[in-house]
Amino acid sequence: MTKPLIIGVSGASGLIYAVRTLKYLLAADYTIELVASRASYMVWQAEEDIRMPAEPAQQELFWREKAGVSTGGKLNCHRWSDVGDNIASGSFRTLGMVIIPCSMSTVAKIASGLSSDLLERAADVQLKEGKPLVVVPRETPFSLIHLRNLTALAEVGVKVVPAIPAWYHHPQTIEDLVDFVVARTLDTLDIDCIPLERWQGN
Question: Which of 21, 59, 83, 144 is deepest in the core (most CB within 10 A)?
Answer without folding.
Answer: 21
